[in-house]
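TASK: fixed-backbone design
INPUT:
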């Protein structure tokens, strides 16, 4: 059983809608069976986490080789988005706060591992849980005011690349469940 849910969505300045804020935030509960990997005690940047989690559907996320390139799987910040990373299409920079949980694929199973413990689930369970998380983040955006246009060309390219990678990985994840 996987619980991977966002509680209390908000923008960086709070619950009031913010058309200038590109990153949704929220409290995350991430639990597999009896092991709690992320407690909903702190507010994380769930937009960035959603993209990173989409990456874990086809990639391992380890401390040595993270899908989050210089960030955490559940980062405090992820608002600096550059249109070029080492392994992936975008690099999301943040601060030095967050929670890392390793995600390792092996023979149709996914091991979720952190100092809190280790649990295994099937790849299809993992994919479904990630898609549920991503869908909740997308629904929050869908019910929010449109975002203002980004004036800086480099920032705009970064966010365009971010959403393009999101959509490509989302569609890939859906195809894996068919």
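OUTPUT:
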């Amino acid at each position: 059983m996987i619980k991977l849910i966002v509680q209390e969505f908000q923008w960086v300045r709070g619950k009031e809608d913010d058309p200038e804020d590109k990153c949704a935030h929220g409290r995350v509960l991430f639990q597999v069976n009896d092991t709690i990997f992320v407690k909903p005690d702190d507010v994380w940047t769930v937009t960035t986490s959603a993209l990173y989690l989409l990456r874990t559907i086809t990639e391992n996320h380890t401390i040595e080789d993270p899908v989050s390139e210089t960030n955490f799987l559940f980062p405090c910040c992820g608002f600096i988005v550059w249109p070029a990373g080492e392994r992936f299409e975008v690099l999301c920079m943040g601060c030095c706060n967050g929670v890392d949980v390793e995600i390792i694929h092996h023979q149709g199973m996914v091991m979720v591992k952190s100092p809190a413990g280790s649990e295994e689930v099937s790849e299809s369970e993992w994919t479904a849980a990630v898609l549920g998380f991503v869908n909740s983040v997308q629904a929050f955006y869908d019910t929010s005011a449109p975002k203002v246009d980004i004036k800086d060309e480099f920032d705009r390219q970064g966010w365009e690349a971010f959403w393009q990678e999101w959509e490509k990985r989302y569609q890939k994840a859906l195809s894996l469940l068919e």
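COMMENT: The two ends are 20 Å apart (CA to CA).
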